[in-house]
Amino acid sequence: MNRFVLQVFLFLAFIPLAILVGYGVLVIAPIFCCFLAINSYKFNNYKEMYIWMAFGGLSFMLAMYMLGVL
Question: What mean pLDDT is reported for the chain?
Answer without folding.
Answer: 90
